[in-house]
């Protein structure tokens, strides 16, 4: 296999939680333009016959921008790692204007097994045409053969300006470190949230710096590697429900916001609002929050006060200059439905904020899948997701729910599934291939004879047999408790 | 939390061999510190500042020739490179570079090529901000995080971090099932589940891709999220809570928050939000159910409070000193919420405003306030504060406020400020009602010449016959003979306009008669008579003028010629 000569800066490694952010440098701007042009060319090649003026124009544009970057930056290397794309070692930032292009290019690279693409300064439109035509048909081949075949065919077509190589595998040590970091972030977030709620309950001003740091940590973690942190949302601490729930909602919201193309600072605003969304519960008598069994009507009414109590409580939380106005809006709106039913009922005209809609979806999902004082039996995550999607009476924004499913897959992380091999599995993460949403990465925790195992074996349900059929398929979801399985044991 | 040093690209390299001599790094840090100071002291266009920045940029060049990454570690007083001190400052003050980083938990930064071009100044901004920051403000870590540097990375210890209680699932560990039960469970209903759970539609991944329309929707939603006025939204929320919750304790808490918010919004110059807040207090006071008199009174105090002299003066002062003016609409909305009592303070400040940009804004807002509060405006005409009285008179005239005539008449007789009386004459002229003209009658005998002339001209222009008796007294009196030509002319013109044919004989005698020894009246006096005759424009008046047509005195001849050209009696010329 041919390998690319890495550009000098491509050797820089990212070590979170380093502030590995992104000033909008020229390289970033060029990189984004490159991806968008690459996407346009991919579409043109797919939709029009060779020689069509649209195709020629798209290929010419792509060759021009490639040459421009290669000449100014002394090389052009596109690298795919996890959910990120790097141009010459600089991570490109997603936003709503390039979301679709990035997503498509990323998926094409994943499907074809391409980790890095080195582009020579002498690239011509014809070289791009060959490459783009080849990647369109790549999906029909068995996964392991796609990249070698592509390299071979490029060589046969005499394309020497494009050099492909496979993805750099994240080492086991890196994965462990990433998981450890996620655990630390999660544990610290729960501790700070507890401190926040306790301070508010006692009428004290909470330490806003700690809260900011925690949300920054969650944003960093989600931006770098979201699967570990999302996996930790399966932790269900009955006694600490309010705190871990707030952290979970923060994690889901930030991950969803990332999926929707929000910038890092917007994710931070969203994360702060999400972490604070239930702060009003710190003003609800603790014996009601922790009351086992059903609540009386009066007790429910008190619990239903938490959105507006949250607004009042947030006046206790003041940062450097301003009150957390955005968080107040989310706190009051997170139980309002799209048609403004739900609670509390607004008196003045109101249009729900997109952040409130995101937090509402995250809140609805986490609350329904958790066991808490007044809901002793949690719902199955996949069923909850279906309910959010299909039941308009839930009042969720359909686009947000769609994006949520895009984030979690049809079978959200933590769902216990039965495979057609009669093995049990726990959904570990959604499949990185967007077209494989129904085929998540699963930890198989029992063999077909029903023997439970720990920590289980991670498999990809998109993997196929020799004949092209899938090796395993989900046949149903199940209630984990029914099988005596504690899901979080497989994530911590 | 301390981040593991082992993951550092530089490592904790004390004792390690350094990759190249440290001189360029020491030089870079010296230039860096100088540039930080220059950034604090000079504007960006200052040559000293530019020179300092250029020096730092140039100092990076020899380093990038040797390496692609510059790791620097911070202790309280030192900056180290591979364990070797490359910069030291013994003080632990805001001016010390190592201490600035160290105190907020930053233990290491790594700089990469490109930093000096795009991000150097951004870091200077942060350092300047953090040095001045109070303990409640964002620290260096938050600012670095928000700045989202591409070519600067940092490691830190989180000084205030919670240790975290470790991770454990607090739920009860369920009893694991036997393999037989698991097997049976997995297989039960598997066949029917296959049809229901694994829905083909769920496999259509495109279902979960956002299409263009949905992306547009999200784009617009995010734009709206950041364009919406959050403060106004929160004010609306607070008033919703106030209306929905009748518990006195809740209403008291919300009232307090609203009061605090109003002050903060005023201080932040968020005038539109203040206007909205004040408007909503009135809505709530009328609409909310179960309001006690105390609650109504407390809400009502808010607009009153802003309308009272001291807070309002603070607002106007703030506006006058502000470099960043609020839009006209905001100011208008705010002034609409003020109580009538605010008008006096606004008027008092009109003449004090120094900012030429704010004056027309306040003026326009004051006009609106005055027009909706006529009674207060009329009251202010007699204010002891001359600036207030002037503004009130001016606006009452412009608004043709009939109710202002009585206090204006009083002002004309009682006030010793001639310029104010003159302004009042002009205002009464603008009002132009019978009452206004009547009020002007006595002003033709005012002690001030300009007031007399202005009043006379107005009354003549309006052909107000009511003043004729008094006017005749003036023109036939002795005092007018001592006046300047302009005043005499003005009075004779008005006299001519009002006297009709009955005045010809007296005027003819002035123009054409000779006294003892054949001596005529003085030239100016005769010229005035000619002008008055021209105004009368009757046959007799024309004949009198014709008789003087051959006059040799140039002043008289000119006046006669002008009068003869006068087509008919009309308003006197100004």
Question: What does the secondary structure layout of this molecule look like, with pairings?
Answer:
The complex is a heterodimer of chains A (492) and B (574).
Chain A: H1 26-47, H2 53-72, E1 76-81, E2 84-87, E3 90-91, H3 99-112, E4 116-119, H4 125-137, H5 143-156, E5 162-165, H6 172-201, H7 208-224, H8 226-232, H9 241-259, H10 264-275, H11 286-289, H12 297-303, H13 306-314, H14 325-333, H15 354-368, H16 381-390, H17 398-408, E6 416-419, E7 424-429, E8 441-446, E9 452-460, E10 474-478
Antiparallel strand pairs in A: 1-2, 1-4, 2-3, 4-5, 6-7, 6-10, 7-8, 8-9
Helix pairs in contact in A: 1-2, 1-3, 1-4, 2-4, 6-7, 6-9, 7-8, 7-9, 7-10, 8-9, 9-10, 9-15, 10-14, 13-14, 14-15, 15-16
Chain B: H1 23-41, H2 47-64, E1 70-74, E2 78-81, E3 84-88, H3 97-103, E4 106-111, H4 115-118, H5 120-132, H6 140-147, E5 152-156, H7 179-187, H8 190-196, H9 200-203, H10 212-227, H11 230-244, H12 248-267, H13 271-287, H14 293-307, H15 309-321, H16 328-336, H17 342-350, H18 358-372, H19 374-380, H20 386-398, H21 405-414, H22 418-431, H23 434-440, H24 449-461, H25 468-475, H26 485-499, H27 504-512, H28 523-536, H29 539-547, H30 554-565
Antiparallel strand pairs in B: 1-2, 1-4, 2-3, 4-5
Helix pairs in contact in B: 1-2, 1-5, 5-6, 11-12, 11-13, 12-13, 12-14, 13-14, 13-16, 15-17, 16-18, 17-18, 17-20, 19-20, 20-22, 21-22, 21-23, 22-23, 22-24, 24-26, 25-26, 26-28, 27-28, 27-29, 28-29, 28-30
Describe the structure.
The complex is a heterodimer of chains A (492) and B (574). Chain A has 492 residues and is an alpha+beta fold. Chain A folds into three domains: 23-165, no CATH class; 172-408, Hypothetical protein af1432, CATH 1.10.3210.10; 416-490, no CATH class. Chain A has 17 helices and ten strands. A five-stranded antiparallel sheet of chain A has the order 3-2-1-4-5. Chain A has a five-stranded antiparallel sheet with strand order 9-8-7-6-10, covered by helices on one side. Chain B is mainly α and 574 residues long. Among the domains of chain B are: 5-156, no CATH class; 377-462, Leucine-rich Repeat Variant (Alpha Horseshoe); 463-574, Leucine-rich Repeat Variant (Alpha Horseshoe), CATH 1.25.10. Chain B is 61% helix and 4% strand. Chain B has helices at 23-41, 47-64, 97-103, 115-118, 120-132, 140-147, 179-187, 190-196, 200-203, 212-227, 230-244, 248-267, 271-287, 293-307, 309-321, 328-336, 342-350, 358-372, 374-380, 386-398, 405-414, 418-431, 434-440, 449-461, 468-475, 485-499, 504-512, 523-536, 539-547, 554-565, and strands at 70-74, 78-81, 84-88, 106-111, 152-156. A five-stranded antiparallel sheet of chain B has the order 3-2-1-4-5. In chain B, a hairpin with a 3-residue loop joins strand 1 (70-74) and strand 2. In chain B, helix 22 runs antiparallel to helix 23 (434-440). Chain B is elongated. Mean pLDDT of chain B is 84; it is low at 1-13 and 190-207. Chains A and B meet through helix 3, helix 6, helix 7, helix 10 and helix 13 of A and helix 6, strand 5, helix 7, helix 8 and helix 10 of B.
